[in-house]
Amino acid sequence: LGLQMSWLWLRPDHISYNSCIIACEGCAVWQPALVLLRGMSAASLAAVDYSFSSAVSACEGSCQWQTAIRICNELHLSRLPTSLISLNSAISACGKSGRWQRARHLLNDMPASSLSPDIISRNAAISACGTGYHWRFAVDLLKLQPSPQDAEPDLEMW
């Protein structure tokens, strides 16, 4: 990004990097999103939580569950607060890749990150179990007590 902007005598900043990562998310292209995320540190710019979240979402759209989990781990190691959006996207990426066990593991580990699963978390995990034909686990997830911020179960959940 820096080389492409240098001929204009512009220096890329957080806004330009994050805008490009968000564009990658919208197109579900994960490799350029990762290059941009890595490029931020090379440009002496610290990635912020939504930089990581957008990169995880790009991985979700491309069914890159391992990369999505790796980015979530990097977010955790960066000392930034792990976001519910990042974990929900990672759960969804696992589900789309048929990795229902990993999706369920991520859901169960949310409290370790001081996060409570919301209705999106549960729907993503239920979908992951459905993709893996593990309906009993999906039914168990339906029985979980919803958190106070959750809305009533929706049609997608049922």
Describe the largest sheet: none
Structural class, by secondary structure, is mainly alpha
Q: Please compute the radius of gyration using only Cα atoms.
A: 17 Å
- Strand-and-helix sequence, N→C? HHHHHHHHH
Name the average pLDDT.
83
User: DSSP helix count?
Assistant: 9
**What percentage of amino acids are in beta strands?**
under 5%
List low-confidence stretches.
Answer: none
Give helix % range. 55-70%
End-to-end separation = 44 Å
Taken from the alpha-carbon principal axes, the silhouette is elongated
Q: Give the strand tally.
A: 0
Strand-helix topology:
Elements: H1 2-6, H2 14-27, H3 30-42, H4 49-61, H5 65-77, H6 84-96, H7 100-108, H8 119-131, H9 135-143
If you had to describe this structure to a student in words, what would you say it looks like?
The chain has 9 helices and no strands. It has 158 residues and is an all-alpha fold. The longest helix is centred in the first third of the chain and has 14 residues, at 14-27. The radius of gyration is 17 Å and the shape is elongated.
